[in-house]
Structure formats: C-alpha cells, structure tokens
Amino acid sequence: MADSFRTSDDLDLHVVETGPSNAPVTVLLAHGWTSSQAVWDHVVPELGPDVRTIRYDHRGHGRSMPAPVDAATIAHLADDMAELIKAKVPSGKLVLVGHSMGGMTMMALGEHHPEIAQRVSAALFVSTSAGRMSEVTFGLPKPLVRAYVKRTQRPAGSKPSTAPRRPRKQTVKVEVPAPVQRALSLVLTRWLVFGSRFRMIDVRATADHAAAVHRRTAALLRRSIGKHDRVSALDAFAHADVRVLVGDRDRLTPVDHARAIADALPNARFVLYPAAGHMLPYERVREVATQIRRAAAF
C-alpha cells in the first residue's frame, strides 16, 4: 500500500507498506543516495507475506518532495526516520535496514534520537560507512581524484577570481544524442556500483533512480555525506543484533569502511559477499533477505 507521510517541516514523503499491520515485527528499510525505495522491490517478497515492511523515498528522492536548502542533510533524514517510526511503529519489535546513505541515516538516528535507537532489536548496515567518505577514490588513483575534485569544486563561499583572464577561444558545442548519453550512463553505473554478477535490468533501474532525483537536494546531501562522521553514534545500537553487509568489490563504501563499523560494535556480525559491488539489494537479494530474517528471528 502506497501512502504519503507529512514531515514536521511540511514535506510529503512517499511511503510503501506491505504485510499485516498487527505483525509482531516491523522491518523499516532505508535506501541510499540517488536511489529510491524501489531498490528493495526484490528483497521484500523474499521476507514472506506475513512480515510487515515499511520503505520510503528520502526527501528529494523518488516520489518524495525536495528539501529546502537548509534542510538537506543526513541529520534531517534521521529526523524523517524518527517521525516515521513514531507515527507508523509506535510499539512492537523494530528492525532497521539501511543501504548506503540509509545506513548513515540510521547512525544519525542513534546520534539525534537515541531513545528510538534503543527500541531497535536488530540493525543491518548494508554497503555503508560511518565516516571518511571524502577519502573514497572509487578504486582510482588518489592524485587523479584529487585533481578532478580541485578542478570541479570551488569551496563554499569562495568568490571568483578578479584577475584578468585571457580571451577564450571560441568552442563548438557538440550535442550528444540521447541514446549515447543513456548508454554512457549505463556503462558508468555498471562499473561504479555493481560487481561481476549483475542483471542489466537492475543497472537500468539504478540509473533511472539517479535520473529522477532532485538535483539540488542530492547535491546538498552529497556534501553532508562528505562530512558524515558517526562512529561514536554506533554505540546507540550496541544492544541490538547488528549485521554489517558489504561486497568485496564495493567502490563507493569499500570493505574497510564496513569493517570499521563492525569493529566499533564488537558483537556485530560481519558478512562479506565475494564479487559483489555496492548494490547488494539487487546483487544479493536472497542473501540480504536471509540476513534480515535471521536478525529479526522470524
């Protein structure tokens, strides 16, 4: 059942619920940056018809409204998650599953809403990170990445140089045909976020989710991800059954980032998937569903 949830700052979030409302366990699933709640489409059916699930589009993603300039941070995503839990899961057993930025949102929930984190019986951090995201090089040489970032990004608040510039040569603008743009997008998506075992239908879906995101909100959230540092916030889940899932070919949130989460929670279970990339909800559907079922003990 699809529904709309209104946040305290007047944004409509697209929410999808499945399963019986009186189920003893509720599984809340949060997606990643430039993705959508639809990334869980294959995982949810594997949990069975008797399991209650709630998944939603983060602000500025999928069918949810974009965020104001001052309200597009991981902390605001955590506020959304807290409000959604209070409204939809006021009592009962609660399992949180977060992919990528969704996992970061769970950490921010522990930081800003520890009373809700205490209610969580199980927490699954899927292909995510507790910090150092500004150091990620996507498997490329660090000097190349640094040069690219320096060339394409100007520090916030900086002003353009007033020094005289040499006249630029007139350039010819070349229009790249839409089919070529699409093909390049799929090639980049496949290389960046998938491992060696993938389906093209999932690559296309991932590219489509990214194309539908609200650009300004996504850009602001990307800046927030770069500042994300919440290793200490993981303590809020020390009481829960914690599982950390990662693919050994994950370029966005590499294996050492996942190990850092597991190391911060000595009782956490670390699960490594060979030949898998960043998109475990697509690449390892049954395995992810199995981990959720085991953590929730249903």
From TrEMBL:
Keywords: Hydrolase. InterPro entries: AB_hydrolase, AB_hydrolase_1, AB_hydrolase_fold. The keyword Hydrolase applies. SUPFAM superfamilies: alpha/beta-Hydrolases. This is Alpha/beta fold hydrolase. Residues 26-283 form the AB hydrolase-1 domain. It comes from the Bacteria. GO terms for molecular function: hydrolase activity. Residues 151-173 are annotated as: Disordered.
